[in-house]
Design goal:
Helices cover 41% and strands 15% of the residues. The chain has 606 residues and is α/β, with parallel strands linked by helices.
C-alpha cells in the first residue's frame, strides 16, 4: 500500500527508516490493484514511544499556528499532552476525599484527566466525562451556596408588617383580587423583608401574570416602613410603560411617582435628583440612569429590577450599592428552565407566578403559510369588525437585498390597501421617541385598528383591546421572542389570537420553534424547548452571570449530574460549613484559588 504526503518528501526521509514497522490510520482508497492512504496518521511500532495516533480512541484537538508560525496539528497536541501527563500526571491532586468519591461513584481526578485525553475504553471515557462534569457543577454550586450563606449572615433592613397603604391598594385600588400564586409570592416577600437580612428574590411569571402588581405591593410595604423604592427597567419604552402603570396604582393613594431616564431635559432630571436625595420622592421608575453616580437616595429600601437578565452583573451591583443593603426584587417574564435556574440563580430565592388572572383565556395560535395569506386576512377582518385591534410584527425595518423579507414599511402600505376601511399605523425603532409615543398612544386609545411594528413592541405595550398578534416571517424569530410577542395579546377576558405567517424556507430548528408555539402556551415548557434548541450560553446570556464558563458540562444535557453535584455541595457545607476539616484542605484551596473571589452580581459586591 502507498502512503502519500504532499510536500512531505523532506520530513518523510527524516521520520521513516526502510524496514521499520509502522501502523497507519486513514481512509483507504483503491486504484486498480493498488491501495493507498493520503496523509495518514501513524505510530512507529518499534522503540519506547506510546501509540497515540492509531489502534485506540484518539482525541481530536483544533489545529492552529504557534507564535513562530509553525502549525500545531491534532497529532502535535496529542504528543505534548501525553508528555505532560507522563511527567506531571502523578503530581495532580485528588480534590475529593476517597469516601466522597465512593459515595458519588467518582473516579480519581488525575485518572479522569488522563482518560479524557487518552481513554483505554469507551467505558473509561464515559466515567471520566461524568467525573469532570460533576466537578465543574460541584464548585459552581458550592460557590452559590457559600454566597447565600455569607449574605444571610450579614444584617439588612427590616420592614414592618404590610400596613395601611398595602391594605388600601389591595382592597380599594385594584379592581380584582390577587390570584393564589400572587398571594403566595407576596407572602414570601413579606417573610423575607422581616428577617433582618437582605432579600434577594426572583419572581418568574409569564407576560400578563401580574408580577408588577406584586412588586407594587412590596414597594408599598417599604413605604409603610418609611423607605423609598426604585423600579429599574432595561429600556426607556418599558420604563415609561411601568411609570404609567405605577401612576395608575399609586396616585389614588396620594403617592408621588417620578421617572428618571436618559432622554429627559436637564431641568426635569435635576428636579427628580433633588427630590430623591431629600426623600420627597418615595417611588422612582427609570432605566440604567438610576445607577449613575449623580443619583442619591435618602432611604432606599427596595430595588425592583424588571427583565433583569438584560442588565449586566455590574449594573445590578451598582443598584445594590445605592442604599444600605436595600432589598432586591428581580422580575423576569422569560421563564427559566429548572436546570438553568439552579445554576444562574442558585443563590436567589425564587417565586413562580404560574397562574393567570381570573377570566383570562389562553391565546389561540395558528400557523399560516404564504399561500394562505388571503385566509389570514379574512380572519383578521372578522376580528376588526368585532371592534378588536391587531398588531402586525415584521422582523426588518428596511428591505434587505440579501434576505427576501417583507419589511415593515411595505407591510404598512399593503395592509393600508387591503383594509381601506380601517386605520393602519406604523411604528419602528428608527422613529423618533415622540413619533413612536404618538403611534403607541393612538393605538392604546383605540384610534388605530392595526399597528404595524418591528419588535419594538416586544415589551412595554399593554393594550387590552388588542386581541390579534400577526407575526410575519415567524420562522425568523427566536422561540422566546415569539412567546414574548404572543404575550402582548390576551390581556383581557376576550379570546385572543396569535397568527404566525411563515415562509416555505424553514430550517429544521425553525420548524421545531413553530411547532412548539402552536402546541403549547406554557412559558416554562416553551423555555425548556428553547434551551434545548439554543444551548445555555445563548439562551440567557450566561456570560453576564459572573459564573465560570463550563468547559465540559452542559446545563441542557447534564441536568441529572447537576442535581447530584448540587446535592453533594450542599451536603458538604451542611457537614463542614467552613471547609476546615483536614480531608477538605485540597478542595478548599482549589475553591479559594479559582472561585471564591468571583463577584456573582450585586449581592457580593462592596
Amino acid at each position: 500500500m502507498k502512503a502519500t504526503w504532499f510536500q512531505g518528501l523532506y520530513w518523510i526521509r527524516k521520520v521513516f527508516e526502510p524496514g521499520e514497522p509502522v501502523a497507519f490510520h486513514g481512509k483507504v482508497q483503491k486504484y486498480g490493484r493498488t491501495f493507498s492512504m493520503t496523509h495518514p496518521d501513524f505510530d512507529k511500532l518499534s522503540g519506547d514511544e506510546a501509540n497515540l495516533d492509531t489502534g485506540r480512541i484518539v482525541a481530536l484537538y483544533p489545529g492552529g499556528k504557534a507564535l513562530d508560525g509553525v502549525g500545531l496539528t491534532s497529532r502535535s497536541f496529542r504528543k505534548i499532552i501525553y508528555n505532560l501527563f507522563k511527567e506531571h500526571g502523578l503530581k495532580l491532586p485528588n480534590l475529593f476525599p476517597e469516601d466522597f468519591r465512593d459515595e458519588y461513584g467518582l473516579m480519581k481526578g488525575r485518572v479522569a484527566l488522563r482518560a479524557i485525553h487518552f481513554p483505554k475504553s469507551q467505558k473509561e471515557l464515559k466515567k471520566a466525562r461524568r467525573r469532570l462534569k460533576f466537578e465543574e457543577f460541584f464548585f459552581i454550586q458550592l460557590l452559590l451556596r457559600l454566597t447565600r450563606e455569607t449574605r444571610q449572615d450579614e444584617p439588612g433592613l427590616t420592614f414592618e408588617e404590610p400596613g395601611e397603604m398595602v391594605r388600601r391598594f389591595l382592597g380599594e385600588v385594584l379592581p380584582f383580587e390577587l390570584t393564589g400564586a400572587q398571594k403566595t409570592a407576596l407572602r414570601e416577600i413579606t417573610d423575607d423583608v422581616q428577617t433582618g437580612h437582605q432579600m434577594n428574590r426572583l419572581i418568574q411569571g409569564d407576560v400578563g401574570s401580574g408580577k408588577t402588581v406584586v412588586a407594587v405591593a412590596a414597594m408599598l410595604q417599604a413605604l409603610d416602613t418609611g423607605y423609598q423604592s426604585a423600579f429599574m427597567a432595561p429600556t426607556e419604552i418599558l420604563a415609561e410603560q411601568h411609570f404609567a402603570n405605577l401612576k395608575r396604582y399609586l396616585y389614588p393613594l396620594g403617592i408621588d411617582v417620578r421617572l428618571l431616564v436618559g432622554g429627559q431635559k436637564k431641568s426635569e432630571r435635576d428636579l427628580v435628583l433633588e427630590d430623591l436625595a431629600a426623600g420627597r420622592t418615595p417611588v422612582v421608575v427609570g432605566t440604567h440612569a438610576l445607577i449613575q453616580e449623580s443619583v442619591e437616595f435618602d432611604r432606599l429600601g427596595l430595588a425592583v429590577v424588571d427583565e433583569q437578565h438584560r442588565f449586566g452583573v455590574m449594573q445590578r451591583a451598582e443598584m445594590f450599592q445605592k442604599g444600605d443593603r436595600p432589598h432586591m426584587l428581580l422580575m423576569t417574564a422569560t421563564p427559566i428552565p429548572r436546570s438553568l435556574a439552579m445554576t444562574l440563580y442558585g443563590d436567589l430565592d425564587v417565586s413562580v407566578i404560574d397562574e393567570m388572572p381570573a377570566g383570562r383565556k389562553p391565546v389561540e395560535t395558528k400557523l399560516y403559510g404564504e399561500n394562505r395569506r388571503g385566509e389570514m386576512h379574512s380572519f383578521l377582518k372578522d376580528r376588526l369588525e368585532e371592534g378588536e385591534q391587531a398588531y402586525v410584527v415584521y422582523p426588518l425595518v428596511e428591505e434587505s437585498e440579501k434576505m427576501d423579507l417583507r419589511d415593515a414599511e411595505n407591510g404598512y402600505e399593503n395592509l393600508s390597501e387591503a383594509f381601506p376601511d380601517y386605520s393602519v399605523d406604523l411604528v419602528h425603532g428608527r422613529m423618533s421617541s415622540s413619533a413612536k409615543d404618538a403611534a403607541m398612544e393612538s393605538f392604546a386609545d383605540g384610534e388605530t385598528d392595526i399597528l404595524v411594528a418591528t419588535t419594538v413592541i416586544e415589551v412595554g405595550v399593554d393594550v387590552p383591546t388588542a386581541t390579534v398578534m400577526v407575526i410575519e416571517h415567524a420562522e425568523r424569530f427566536g422561540l422566546s421572542q415569539l412567546h414574548q410577542l404572543r404575550g402582548r395579546v390576551g390581556r383581557s377576558e376576550r379570546q385572543s389570537y396569535c397568527l404566525l405567517v411563515a415562509g416555505h424556507a424553514r430550517s429544521a430548528e425553525g420548524k421545531k420553534r413553530l411547532s412548539a408555539m402552536t402546541s403549547t402556551t406554557d412559558g416554562f415548557e416553551i423555555s425548556e424547548i428553547d434551551l434545548k434548541l439554543r444551548g445555555a450560553g445563548e439562551f440567557f446570556g450566561t456570560r453576564q452571570s459572573g459564573l465560570p464558563d463550563l468547559k465540559i458540562a452542559d446545563i441542557t444535557e447534564d441536568e441529572a449530574v447537576l442535581q447530584e453535584a448540587r446535592q453533594a455541595a450542599f451536603a458538604l457545607i451542611d457537614g463542614d460549613p467552613e471547609l476546615d476539616r483536614d480531608e477538605h484542605a485540597l478542595l478548599r484551596d482549589h475553591f479559594e484559588r479559582y472561585y471564591a473571589k468571583r463577584k456573582l452580581g450585586f449581592a457580593r459586591v462592596g
